[in-house]
Amino acid sequence: MIDTPSVDWFALSPSLATLGAAAICLLSEAFVPRWILRPFAAFFCALGFIAGGALAILLYIETPHGSLEVADAIFRDRYAAFTQILVMGAGLLTVGVSYSARMREDHIGEYYALLVTAGAGMAFLVQSANLMTLFLGLEWFSVCLYILCAIEIDLVGSLEAGLKYLIIGGMGSAVLLFGSALVYGATGELGYSAIADATRAQDLAGDPILLVGLAMLLAGLAFKSSAAPFHMWTPDVYEGAPTPITGFMAAATKTVALVLMYRVLTVAFPEERDVWTIAVAVLAVISLAWGNIAALVQANVKRLLAYSSISHAGFMLIAVSAANELGVRALLYYLIPYSAISVGAFAVVAARERELGEPVTLDNLAGFGWERPLLGFSMATFMLGFAGFPLTGGFMGKFLVFSSASEAGWNWLVIVGVLATLVSLYYYLAVIRSMYMRPAAELGLAPIGGSPPREIMLSSAAFLAMAVNVGSFFAVQPLVDFARSAAETLPL
Amino acid sequence: MTGWLATILIFLPLAGAVLVWLLPVGRFAGPTALLVALAEIGFWINALNQMNFDKAGPAPNFDQRWSWFSDLGVSYHVGFYGFSFWLAGLAVVVMAAAIAYGFWVGRDRPSAYFGLMLFLTSATVGVFASQDLLLFYVFFEAMMIPLYLLIGVWGGPGRLGATVKFVIYTMAGSLLMLASVIVFGLSEGSFDLVSTGTSDNTWIFLGFLVAFAVKAPLFPLHGWLPDAYRESSPEVAAVLSGLISKAAVFGFIRICLFKFPEPFDDFRVLVLALAATGLVYGSLLAFRAQDVRGVIAYSSLAQMGLITIGIFAVSTAGISGAVLQAVNHGLISATLFLLAGTIERRTSTGSFDRLGGMARGRPALATMLMLTGIIALAVPGSSAFAGEFLILLGVFGAGWGWAVAAATGIVLAAMYMLRLISAVLHREPGSAVSEVALDLRPAELGILVPLVACLLALSAWPAAISGHVLGPSISPGAPQERHLTRPNDQPPEGRMDMVTMGPGR
Q1: Mean pLDDT on A271-283
Q2: What percent of chain B clears pLDDT 70, i.e. is strictly above it?
Q3: CA angle, corner A194, sides to A188 and A195, nearest 5?
Q4: Domain for residue A4, yes or no?
Q5: Residue B173 near residue B211, CB atoms below 8 Å
Q6: Which residue range(s) make up the domain with A230?
Q7: Nearest CA in chain A to B171
Q8: What are phi and psi of B275, to 5 degrees?
Q9: What is this model's ipTM?
Q10: Does the pLDDT of residue A365 top 50, yes or no?
């Protein structure tokens, strides 16, 4: 007879709701007629994300104090709920971007099922309270993404992207698992807070096994958040994967990986704080340098955005390394415009891709801003947001991140961030330059003919992303208030 | 409504910009933008009526403050001091002229174009009105976005290179400023410019100083200037040199001088030396330049050097002269760039070896160019004379050597301005000047005459500006106790009276 723990179904509800939607999408492949399959699956996928988001909001409201649930395996707190809302939002936008993508008829149901299952895995992962649930959640969404990357086997590079992601992601998972084993070996505990207690009780703060375990855990999570030097897979996978999926990975995967990294480091390893703040700061600097400098020479826009996402991992790692109250608020706030911008930017790339039928480069973006005013304007605000110009949430995010570093006494990190921003301007503005300043005729771009496809879903997704990007600039105080109460359950 | 005037001045053009962008018919964009710009001037004049230049206490006129991001003490705080109010006035006038010129010329993609111009107006007025450091930074950066697009989309053939240079230079400066803003704000616990005290941190000060030095530009940070001024369309060049550079004037006074009195003193000699070098060097380059825009561009470099000298002289006369000269230079260089535009439209070149003899048969063009040029070279009785005189007077106290350098620059100004006038108007008709090239059209006169009229009015009464620059007390901890003679306290020496006596009629 095994004792079953009492299960707080409400705490699990965001994951469960999205899983339910996944089941419907999967079954629709078998039972729904072909002609209605695409809207049907997309609708239930979107519904899953909406329901998950709504439940996460409810969970946020109903959980003023964090607690451990289900045999101490998951957290029920606002920190997780906040992140779940972000993931669900990114997922919802991704459905809009995916809707009119050219897709092989025989896997529409699977596509949406996997997408929403990945969302469920992410929602589960951010609630994880011990190393088992951590690994479970991580693999749960990773496996979905491996398949999604490779799902368009007709697409050049898609299969390669899936394989590369599988191998390197598997490597990252292995490192993470090894690290977990070492931490368990050193402390005899799996739960985050239990690890911290054991470290304190047995005076293990300088224990080499524990430190190696910590380093490997950190490396494993850095793989997922594509922070340099663990970013090797990012450009190829981002380039090869179907564009909507790339946007989802850039937004959601990075969000959960960074949020989780912060939780693990602060909850499980408060005693080693001096070590990991330095380590994370070093990761941040490497990511900023590598991401920005490599992005300078990219001609393919998806690769460019991939390197830009590496550099943004660097910016957010600055907030993690600051490890103060302002830092966690900065991280959570930064993720709001960042996720929206990422999905939105890849949505615009997807639109151009469908129009041209070939990979989007800086050259063949020429004239795009004038041809498609809404998408062009959105893309311009996304690029300004990435670059941290005022009137976009990206600016406020950078401002908060730099403030947190300055408050932690790390002004040198502010200078590094500022210099990285300066370098990044060159390539972000290059996108705007191509869209608006270079006439298409000059480059001999021959349109395929006819007017560009009307993609209402994609346009509304891009518009929503833009609204979040600009709105989060003005509404910074309420959003930071949410972030603050989300962060209150973390020990700092 | 009085309390809202600063806010209205900032957001009226922004609302106009959104309206213009959303207009379904591009044809209406120009007239709408022009109407908004004229309404903006109306509101500014209304504000001028209600402005209290002798307001006591640290709070500015039209003070308005709402908390925006209370965690870090960021607020929406706007208001005008004397000097910033004049700069805002310059902004609304120059922007209206530029919009009118763009409308007359008929730019492509009018909705986007005029929307961006209005957006730029909003950001510039915002810079001059902001009393919160982060808000200032927001407006300061927001100016970059429309400028980047205006140069890059509507500029000349070399525009792409020019924009890259422009952006990299100015952003390098302003991002360092962001670091300074953050460190200053966090150490004070608030970003409010009125309620925070002063700081003696040299590094923070340098972040601000470099940002403004690039924006001005100050020698040797002027690398972006020639390309940007040559490749933009004339009205954008007018805005760039006449208006955007004045954000640096505001920054030097409001932030560098009043927030960092001690570092300001420490770096004073260095900045004075750079400004004097820039003045002489810019004047020489202007004298050697081979085209109309080259002369105006480098003369801007020189004039900004002169204005900076006035500010860093740290005396009431110097600062009053600097603000007066900032307004003068804004009007002069806007007029000259617009004139250069009209010349280029008639001859399709600005190069001196293909110009000449344009005065014959074109009296209006000749009169406008002569008049502006003569005011620019600071002939006694002109407003520029008043400004330069005050600057010389102000800097004399800091050391007569500076005054000599500044005076040299003024002599050189006469040389390059006369050369410009004679190269365009006199001599034999150049190869590009056709007999049938028209005189200024009524619409062009309608744009240029008001600008020149402002200059003439200022020539008649320069003390309107120079006598209303700094109120009795501008900010707690402001260094005027030590350096600045207060206009109200010091009639015996009569420094301020010089303004009315010197150049008055």
Answers
A1: 92
A2: 93
A3: 60
A4: no
A5: yes
A6: 9-445+454-487
A7: A422
A8: -65, -40
A9: 0.92
A10: yes
